[in-house]
Amino acid sequence: MARSHAAQKSRNTAAELTITALFIALTYIFTAFINVRLPIAANGGLIHLGNVPLFIGAIIFGKRTGAAAGGIGMGLFDLLSGWTLWAPFTLVVAGLMGYVTGRITEKEGHQKLIWYAAAMGAACVIKIIGYYIAEVVIYGNLLAPAASIPGNLIQVGMAAVIVLVIISPLSAAARKAGLK
User: Fold this and answer.
1) Is pLDDT of 120 > 90?
2) Which three-class secondary structure state does DSSP give residue 143?
3) Which secondary-structure segment (H or E) carries 47?
4) Residues 6+ apart with CB under 8 A from 50
5) How far, in Å, CA of 55 to CA of 73, rounded?
6) What separation in angstroms does the CA of 61 have from each of 47, 53, 66?
7) 180 by DSSP, 3-state: which?
8) Across the strands, what pairs with 36?
9) Residues facing 85 on adjacent strands
């Protein structure tokens, strides 16, 4: 019996690790290759779709997958695309976004679109406050970071709309495949 339980736990751990790695990769890809650089803010700014796989991973597979997808996936983008100074902030901010989204939606009874929207709203607040603080630290200016807020709102808003449209069938598919 113990061997069977250990084997099952090992399979679950391997599946969780594989799924989390997939969502880290998807978050990186959606951030790196589906984006628009903005001609505003001190460093330009970027609108990307990396939040889509971050939110999907967090909602379907929970806070650990969401935190890793956000923090590592977007942090890798910063490291590999010349935004290196931003990587530590992104690791924390995007990691918190994924963690909070997963934490809210994994609670019993919170597997409904209204809770998904609320979780992504909380993630948006984390993004705005987190990157505001990051820009204050990086640029030493309290006013310049305000220019990034509209881009952050657009970025998370677009991701939320996309996720709300596709999350139910994706969640059902994950359940049917025995992944959730």
Assistant:
1) yes
2) coil
3) strand 46-48
4) 27, 28, 30, 31, 32, 34, 35, 73, 74, 77, 94
5) 12
6) 25, 11, 7
7) coil
8) 47
9) none
pLDDT at 91 over 70: yes
31: tokens are 């951030």
| 12 vs 3, more confident | 12
Q: Rounded to an integer, what distance in angstroms lies between the CA atom of residue 138 and that of residue 91?
A: 15
Using alpha carbons, select from 173, 171, 177 the residue that is nearest to residue 57: 171
The rounded mean pLDDT for the chain is: 91
Residues of the chain by 3-state class (helix, strand, coil), percent to 5: 80, 5, 15
Collapsed DSSP state (helix, strand, coil) of residue 25:
helix
Q: Show the tokens assigned to 134.
A: 């990051």
* DSSP category for residue 50: T
Q: How far apart, in whole angstroms, are the C-alpha atoms of residue 157 and residue 12?
A: 33
Dihedral sign (CA 90, 127, 105, 55) = negative
Q: Are 53 and 30 a contacting pair, CB within 8 Å?
A: yes
- Retrieve residue 4's tokens: 């069977």
The predicted pLDDT at position 41 comes to: 54
**Of 5-9, 21-25, 43-47, 147-151, minimum mean pLDDT range:** 5-9
User: Whole-prediction pTM value?
Assistant: 0.91
H or E segment to which residue 55 belongs: helix 51-61
